[in-house]
Amino acid sequence: MPVLLYHAVTDSPGRHVAPFSVSPAEFARQLDLVLDAGYRCVTAGELVRLRAERAAPGRLAVITFDDGYADFATAALPALRARSLVSTLYVTTGWLAGGGAREPGPSDPMLAWSQLPELEAAGVELGAHSHSHPQLDTLGRAALDEELRRPKQLLEDALGHEVPGMAYPHGYSGPRVRRATRAAGYGSGAAVRNALHRPDDDPFAVSRLMLMRGTTTEQFGAWLAGVDGRSGSPLAGWATVGWRAYRRGRALVRRRPGSAYR
Ligand SMILES: [Zn+2]
C-alpha cells in the first residue's frame, strides 16, 4: 500500500526544502497517476481504523504531508480538492505562524494556526510532527515526552477534538520512540522507509514513500505497481541501528536540529 510523503509543493522552494519539494505540475501529475492506477485515497487515521477492523476495501493509498508549509493551502489542497482526495497533514506546531514564539526552522512561509480548522473542513486530517522537529531518537526521556505531548495538546486545543496521528521528524523513531508515542496517547506513528506499507506492519512504524524533486515517473509508477526497495537482508536493520547510534552521538555533541529541515 503506497503511503506517500510530500513536503512543499511549489516552484520556488527555499534552500533547505528544495530537494524535498515537488512542483505543482508534478504533484498534479502524480495525483492523476494514483487515480489512474485505481487507488482510493484514505487518511492515515482511516488506514489505521481499517487495519484494526481487518477490513480490506480494495486498493488504498494515503497522501501525507509533513511540516506544514504554507503552499499546502495554496498549491496542494486545490489539486487534492479538484480530485476529491483526502489527505493527512502532520504539522510541526512550533513552526506554525500566529502561535507566539517560533522554534528555529525553515525560512519558507508556514501555515498559520488560524488556517487549521478550514483545512480540516476541506478534507484534511491533521496530525502532529513534534513541536520543534528534533531527531526524536536522540532525545532523553523528558525532552522526548515534551516533543510528543505538547503538539498533541496544542492541536487538540485548537481543533477541539482528539488528534491521534503522529509523524516522526526526519522519519527517525526506533522502539523507544514508538513506545513513548503510544504512551503519549497517539494511535499511530508515520515513519519514512521508502517502502510500501504492509497490512501487518506496526501502526507505529507506518512506512512512507518520500517524494523528492528528483523522483522519476518510473519510480513513482513502480511504487503504484507495488514494487519497492525494501530489502530482505537482515543487514539493512543493523545498518539503521548503527546510523542511529552515530546520530545520537553527534546530537549529544551538537544539540541542535538536523541541518536539513524536513
Ligand atoms: Zn519534517
Write the layout of secondary structure elements.
Layout: E1 3-6, H1 24-36, E2 40-41, H2 44-52, E3 60-67, H3 71-82, E4 87-91, H4 116-121, E5 124-128, H5 141-159, E6 165-167, H6 175-183, E7 188-190, E8 209-210, H7 217-224, H8 234-253
Parallel strand pairs: 1-3, 1-8, 2-3, 3-4, 4-5, 6-7
Mean pLDDT: 89
Strand content: 5-15%
Structural class, by secondary structure, is alpha/beta
Gap from first CA to last CA: 23 Å
Quaternary organisation? single chain
CATH class descriptor name: Alpha Beta
What are the secondary-structure elements, in order, as H or E? Answer: EHEHEHEHEHEHEEHH
Sheet bearing the most strands, described? Answer: 6 strands, parallel
Tally the beta strands.
8
Approximate helicity band: 25-40%
Bound molecules: zinc ion
Task: Spell out the CATH superfamily.
Answer: Glycoside hydrolase/deacetylase
Domain NodB homology: 59-262
GO molecular function, one term: hydrolase activity, acting on carbon-nitrogen (but not peptide) bonds
InterPro entries: Glyco_hydro/deAcase_b/a-brl, NODB_dom, Polysacch_Deacetylase
GO biological process, one term: carbohydrate metabolic process
